[in-house]
Amino acid sequence: MGQRKRMPMKLRMNNLRYKASEWCKRNRDTPFDTPMLAQALGMDPDSRSDCSRVYTSIIKYWRDEAIIQFRKWVEVGIIPLDKDRYSRWDTFLYNYNQNDAYIFLFDIKNKYYIQPGLDELERMDKNRLQRQWQGILTVIDEMKTYDNRLLLNGVQKPITELIEAGRGVDLLLDGHREDEE
Asked: Is the pTM of this model over 0.90?
């Protein structure tokens, strides 16, 4: 009797993800950027639309699916909650990769995507939060300059409430706790 062809998770009816999965299997642990992956998939690395398609159809899609899959696997016990977070992450990556799907995050410092270990993931998450927080602080500064109000549910609130609420986030990202002050 012939061997049944394995159909990896979330690849059915998507030739682009299927090709990306094959490339990822052959190039495990190889950092890459979007144009490099687009070129590896036979697309134009200089085309903004091709690179955008690679990002949304593959990288972002797998990252979004990873969150859903992680929650499902926790629910059914594939990822044991009684283990430390390193074991949970390793178990998750192993199982997710076995299903020919990958989770990549962009390392802004090195300008490439990697599938991070837990320490690297936590460092990258902190850096992402800090960059986003700096953008929020820029908006708050502009609002202060123009004495703007914050409109919430049809009610104007003074910007000072937003500044006070953000103080805890600022301290947390700097590595301090509010009760230390």
From this structure: no
